[in-house]
Every structure is written in structure tokens, then in C-alpha cells.
Amino acid sequence: MKLTVCGSIAFYAEMEALKVQLEALDHEVLIPLLRDEVPEAEGDRKIYFGKYIEEKGGIDAFPPSHRLWDLKENAIRDHYEKIEWADAVVIANYEKRGIRGYIGGNTLIEIGVAFYLKKPIYILNPISSELSYKQEIYGMKPILLEGNLSAINDKVLV
Fold first, then answer.
1. Is the C-alpha dihedral spanning 140, 143, 149, 154 positive or negative?
2. Pairing between strand 45-47 and 40-42?
3. Is CB count within 10 Å lower at the N or C end of the chain?
4. How far apart are the C-alpha atoms of 34 and 62, rounded to whole Å?
């Protein structure tokens, strides 16, 4: 099955490992392009959107016309194309900022795109009840994997 992995870029190392595990189960897998998430590089140090914004004065330091948002738009569009390509999406939701099963804003909209495109939505780990939009996620009828990647199968395709 063709799968696109979605999740916070903070989970990039985990998404790379997840890709390897899913490929071992004979899936074709795409993950976000890390280079699309880098507005600035200092030598070997890559600074990703969230960290870049934080280090440069916060979100309000970047008006809507700032070139940063062109880069973010391209990263979002690229990943939407990956979702469109896929038969299903796998949501990589780990612990972030003390919240287990974290799903952030960008991942939420990726889930929404997959839902709109009628793609099965697999969520790797239990979803935190600390997320105010957990009900919206449940309303999109995800398949909760509870960490079991072998539960992903072609039989649920719409």
C-alpha cells in the first residue's frame, strides 16, 4: 500500500524510523521533505520553522507578507500532494511538550485533507485528551493502531 506519514517535524527521526518499519512490511512510504522545513541553515545546523520563528522573535515578528510564509506554503502543498498520492495516511503522534499522542495544528489539517480525499487515516498512538480537537479527529473516523503497524492493511481501502 502507498502510505504518507504525517506528524510534527519535531518527530522527524521517528518518522524516518517509521518509514523503514513500514517499508519492511512491503508498503511504499513518503514522509515530509526535511529540506522544505528549513528556512535557514547555519553550517550543518538546520533551523526548522518552529525553532526559527521562536529564535527570531516569535510569530508576530513575521507579517503575512514575509518570505517565510512562501516557504511554509510550499512545504504544506508538497505534503498535501503526498497525501493525494497515498492510499492512506499514518499519523506519527508521539510525546511533545509533555503531551503524549500529540497532534499539532498542521497535522490536524493534514488529517482533514486525507478525510476529504476519503483516505483511511491510521493513528499510531493513542490521542491525548489534552487536545481540544480530539473530537474532530474522532469524527474523521481514524483507525487507531495502538502502535501495531501490522494492523495497516489493504482491506480498509475505500
1. negative
2. antiparallel
3. C
4. 21
Phi-psi region of 36 (alpha: psi -120 to 50; beta: other; left: phi over 0): alpha
Tell which residue, 106, 123, 132, 95, has the closest CA to residue 49: 106
Grid cell, residue 77, equals: 502543498
pLDDT band of 43, cuts 50, 70, 90: low
Name the band, by pLDDT with cuts 50, 70 and 90, for residue 70: confident
3-state secondary structure of 117: coil
Check: pTM over 0.85? Answer yes or no: yes
Handedness of CA 33, 157, 111, 83 (dihedral sign): positive
| Grid cell at residue 127 | 490521542
Sequence ranges of the domains in the chain: 2-37+66-156
Task: Note the pLDDT of residue 44.
Answer: 60
| Domain at 2-37+66-156: CATH code | 3.40.50.450
Rounded CA-CA distance 23/27 in Å is 5
